[in-house]
From TrEMBL:
It comes from Saxophila tyrrhenica. This is Aminoglycoside phosphotransferase domain-containing protein. Residues 31-260 form the Aminoglycoside phosphotransferase domain.
Length: 379
């Protein structure tokens, strides 16, 4: 939901820019700020006609990462995908002139639908719950079927070596984020547990999944999707700042993380852990209260059917462990932005505190990946 503007922008300057360059948006404007959007401040813009739009901008101040907050990449990919069957909001304008509101920004269509934070889809029927998950997976399959060169994204990323690049990028991010010091206490954020061991394991090419290259979202999950108000279908994918050409398992493991995290978490509560996703055989599972919720195996099978290839279990486990490692670094980044008071989300500190638990869960899964690879090599 959009509410009070927490990070002010120069509204008069924005209105002058729109009046001159963007006839679709008619000043004067009413601005509200969304609670979602961990890194790029996101605003609801209502123009003089009552039409709503969404504005995404870089955060203010000196940025910790040169690779994050790429709002121009977000604009480029959603604009390119408008000509496909992948559901995205219409791109309205991109402004790279930082003098307008202090940072680059873009404006896109406002999608009037349902945004669901809880992937167990509380309050819907069993049939709708199943179909909403199926359509989320179908939507991911549609994205992965798009050939970048067919939509003018042939220079959007490299077709090979995605995980090697991810290891380098996130490893560098982790080091810079660990050094960030709290604005008040002066204490550094600190490095993740098992960090060097993670890097050594993931960098071993013999353990990595078969190399593939498709257009990936980078953070594909239920709460980055907009569903139709009354129908169980996806009408838009949001938050494209981490999109690139990469490995499809990166998106798939991110989407199925509710099962991964819920069954791996050592203690409760944990962000993104939900007892609805805990295996029904466990006494703490609430799965029976959410009929129609697919199993992790069903979700993976649906994806394989849509994508057109079977996913080896050893590859999926490797990718799932990498996803937890990556998430721990993303949480570390939120902690670092909170430390220097750049975080845009009201729950930034809570999210930042998840970095260590997620790293520990990721390391446990690395051990599982090693065991499966060992068993496979003996066959």
């Amino acid at each position: 939901m959009a509410g009070q503007v927490r990070q002010q922008i120069d509204q008069a300057s924005l209105e002058r820019y729109l009046e001159k360059n963007v006839p679709e948006v008619k000043p004067p404007l009413q601005l509200k700020q969304f609670g979602f959007g961990q890194s790029n401040p996101t605003y609801q813009v209502t123009d003089a006609t009552g039409q709503r739009f969404v504005l995404r901008k870089k955060p203010p101040g000196e940025l910790l990462s040169k690779t994050a907050h790429k709002v121009d990449r977000e604009y480029r990919v959603i604009h390119a995908l408008e000509q496909t069957d992948v559901p995205v909001p219409k791109a309205i304008c991109m402004c790279k002139d930082e003098s307008v509101i202090g940072t680059e920004f873009y404006i896109m269509e406002f999608l009037d639908g349902r945004m669901v934070e809880n992937p167990s889809f509380p309050g819907v029927s069993a049939e709708e719950r199943t179909e909403m998950w199926k359509d989320a997976i179908r939507t991911l399959g549609k994205l992965h079927r798009v050939r970048p060169k067919d939509v003018g994204l042939e220079t959007f990323g490299k077709p090979n070596g995605f995980y090697d690049r991810q290891i380098k990028t996130f490893g560098s991010l982790a080091k810079s984020q660990a050094a960030a010091k709290d604005k008040e206490s002066g204490q550094p954020v600190g490095q993740l547990p098992h960090f060097e061991d993670f890097v050594q394991f993931f960098a071993d090419s013999k353990s990595q999944p078969k190399d593939r290259g498709v257009l990936v979202h980078g953070d594909f999950k239920i709460d980055n999707l907009v569903f139709h108000k009354t129908e169980p279908k996806v009408i838009g994918i949001l938050d494209w700042e981490m999109s690139t050409v990469g490995h499809p398992l990166a998106d798939l493991t991110n989407l199925i993380q509710p099962w991964t995290i819920s069954n791996a978490t050592p203690n409760w509560p944990r962000i993104h852990a939900d007892r609805a996703f805990v295996h029904p055989s466990r006494s703490d599972s609430t799965n029976k209260e959410f009929p129609g919720l697919p199993t992790r195996q069903q979700a993976v099978q649906w994806y394989g059917e849509t994508a057109g290839y079977a996913i080896p279990d050893a590859e999926l486990t490797w990718a799932a462990s990498f996803a937890l490692f990556r998430d721990s670094i993303i949480f570390q980044g939120i902690a670092a932005r909170y430390a220097v008071r750049q975080a845009s989300n009201e729950k930034a500190k809570q999210y930042g505190d998840e970095r260590v638990p997620f790293a520990k869960m990721g390391w446990t899964m690395v051990k599982d990946a090693k065991a499966k690879q060992g068993s496979q090599s003996k066959l």
